[in-house]
Amino acid sequence: MLAAVGFSTFFASKIGNLRVVVDPNDNLPQEHPQLDRVQEELTGRIKATWWNKTLEGELLGVWNANRSDFFLRPSLAYAFTDVWKGFIGWDIFNGRRESFYGFFQPMTTFFVEIRATF
Predict the structure, then answer these.
(1) Alpha-carbon span 85 to 55, nearest angstrom
(2) Three-class DSSP category at 5
(3) What is the tally of structural domains in the chain?
(4) Which domain holds residue 31?
(5) Residue 24 has what pLDDT?
(6) DSSP string, the chain
(7) CB-CB contact of 77 with 60 (8 Å)
(8) pLDDT tens digits, 12-52
(9) Would you say 69 and 108 are in contact if contact means Cβ atoms under 8 Å apart?
């Protein structure tokens, strides 16, 4: 079925996390999002490859259920050679200002990377 839509490889995963903070007031600033005693998150990753695994697409995401904030990272990678690989993507932070990912919202950024592996 996946070959019919043109995927060389397709991978998907999801993980639920539950984090419990033992002492939420231990040296944390008042506005710090760790003040939630219990944090519930859902993470997911979808990755696909095309053209004999020279082109890779990935979508990574984290959603914090407590404060309804999230992080997304869509990206593409292309292997120019066995040594050189290029990446392009976007780190997206969103949520209310007092939430963990909302705090980082001004740091939402687009990135380009060239990597050599020896």
Answers:
(1) 10
(2) helix
(3) 1
(4) 3-116
(5) 53
(6) -TGGGT-SEEEEEEEEEEEE-S-TTSS--TT-GGGSSEEEEEEEEEEEEETTTTEEEEEEEEEETTTTEEEEEEEEEEESSSSEEEEEEEEEEES-TTSHHHHTGGG-EEEEEEEE--
(7) no
(8) 666 776 666 666 555 555 555 455 767 788 898 999 999 99
(9) no
